[in-house]
């Protein structure tokens, strides 16, 4: 049944049915994701430059901070949409406002890496979150039993945004400390807001959204693979190693895709606690996928002698993100759907990938280890699938 509309052409924002048949990502949600392609690409590019210039600690810290802004804004919209999406004109306008905030964040990322200047990023982030406050306030009018939850979300998010604005008058290490504290405050908002009553979520819809964002991030790695071929065309002396890197990157990226989509993710969010684990752990999964593309670019610099990093250090910029990605997916989705063999091979494979740079031909063996994990998953289907 089509929801009734008001004179202003607005659809009452009532909680969506968590068992709604055929629920899939909307065209608006797919459009929303496009701006994150830009933000992730800029963050990965800046991380690449920082790592190649041997500013490792500073680069990783800056990347972790700006990626939180990207990830948290995306995740909050995604969970709100699974509960209250209406797709009327006001919902679309507020979503586009959030998109504008993402683009502002993307524009300010370079300043964070270069000068520790968070002004533009904070401004863009607050724009995104204020639009989210408006969505929660609107939902509170027709949310029924979820009204107190919606009001708590709106109030708590507003308080945290005021805190973020105070960072604009801070400098030095004070900003870093404040950032860490305010991140914890953001993470606490859903826990506090839903302590008595939880908003409904559609397991298949929400996990589809996470899968789509993962594809965006893996796309950055495929771009890095293409860049290796492009570089090979211009650098004939390094033609062989660059082509090999491109092929191995494709193999590893395909393996990461295979590993991510092997388990039935919707079974991982059966309770509020499990949904928190699933959502929050994805920060590391997503950040690792983005960092992997940066690591490939560092490897290209290493092959073409455009970085001061040692070969071992350059290899670690690739293998650490892969290991984190694999372990993260195993922790939140694979281990509860796998037999003993898979639960041994997957984490062991991740550890071997992590140790791989100490071997004379590191990245080639990384591809072998990842292929071995995939082969194991092919032979051993998910328990829920084999049971069915």
CATH architecture of the largest domain: Up-down Bundle
- How many helices? The count is 13
Strand content: under 5%
Order of SSEs: HHHHHHHHHHHHH
**What radius of gyration results from the CA coordinates?**
22 Å
Sheet with most strands: none
Region (Disordered): 1-22
Organism: Kribbella rubisoli
Keywords: Membrane, Transmembrane, Transmembrane helix
Pfam families: LtrA
Describe the structure.
This protein is mainly alpha-helical and 388 residues long. The chain has two domains: 27-193, no CATH class; 203-387, I/LWEQ domain. 76% of the residues lie in helices and 0% in strands. The protein is built from 13 helices and no strands. It has helices at residues 27-52, 56-84, 89-115, 119-140, 147-166, 173-193, 203-234, 239-261, 272-303, 311-334, 340-355, 362-379, 383-387. α1 (27-52) packs antiparallel against α2 (56-84) and α11 (340-355) packs antiparallel against α12. The two termini are 32 Å apart. The mean pLDDT is 91.
């Amino acid at each position: 049944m089509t929801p009734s509309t008001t004179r202003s052409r607005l659809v009452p924002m009532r909680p969506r049915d968590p068992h709604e048949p055929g629920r899939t990502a909307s065209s608006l949600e797919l459009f929303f994701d496009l701006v994150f392609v830009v933000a992730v690409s800029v963050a990965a590019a800046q991380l690449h430059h920082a790592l190649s210039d041997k500013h490792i600690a500073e680069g990783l810290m800056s990347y972790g901070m700006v990626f939180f802004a990207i990830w948290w804004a995306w995740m909050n919209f995604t969970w709100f949409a699974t509960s209250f999406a209406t797709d009327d004109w006001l919902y679309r306008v507020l979503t586009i406002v959030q998109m504008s905030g993402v683009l502002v964040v993307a524009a300010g990322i370079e300043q964070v890496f270069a000068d520790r200047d968070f002004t533009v990023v904070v401004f863009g982030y607050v724009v995104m979150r204020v639009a989210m406050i408006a969505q929660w306030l609107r939902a509170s009018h027709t949310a029924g039993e979820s009204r107190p939850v919606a009001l708590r979300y709106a109030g708590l998010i507003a308080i945290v945004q005021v805190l973020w604005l105070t960072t604009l008058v801070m400098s030095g290490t004070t900003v870093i400390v404040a950032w860490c504290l305010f991140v914890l405050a953001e993470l606490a908002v859903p826990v506090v807001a839903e302590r008595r009553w939880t908003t409904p979520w559609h397991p298949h819809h929400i996990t589809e959204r996470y899968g789509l964002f993962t594809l965006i991030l893996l796309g950055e790695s495929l771009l890095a693979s293409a860049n290796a071929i492009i570089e090979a065309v211009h650098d004939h002396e390094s033609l062989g190693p660059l082509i090999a890197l491109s092929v191995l990157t494709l193999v590893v990226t395909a393996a990461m895709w295979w590993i991510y989509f092997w388990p039935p993710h919707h079974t991982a969010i059966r309770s509020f606690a499990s949904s928190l684990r699933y959502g929050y752990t994805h920060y590391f999964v997503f950040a690792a996928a983005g960092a992997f593309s940066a690591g490939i670019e560092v490897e290209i610099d290493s092959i073409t002698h455009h970085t001061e990093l040692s070969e071992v250090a350059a290899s670690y910029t690739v293998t650490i993100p892969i290991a984190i990605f694999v372990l993260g997916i195993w922790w939140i989705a694979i281990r509860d759907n796998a037999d003993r063999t898979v639960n041994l091979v997957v984490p062991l494979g991740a550890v071997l990938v992590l140790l791989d740079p100490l071997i004379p031909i590191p990245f080639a063996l990384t591809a072998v280890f990842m292929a071995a994990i995939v082969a194991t998953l092919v032979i051993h289907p998910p328990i829920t699938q084999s049971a069915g």
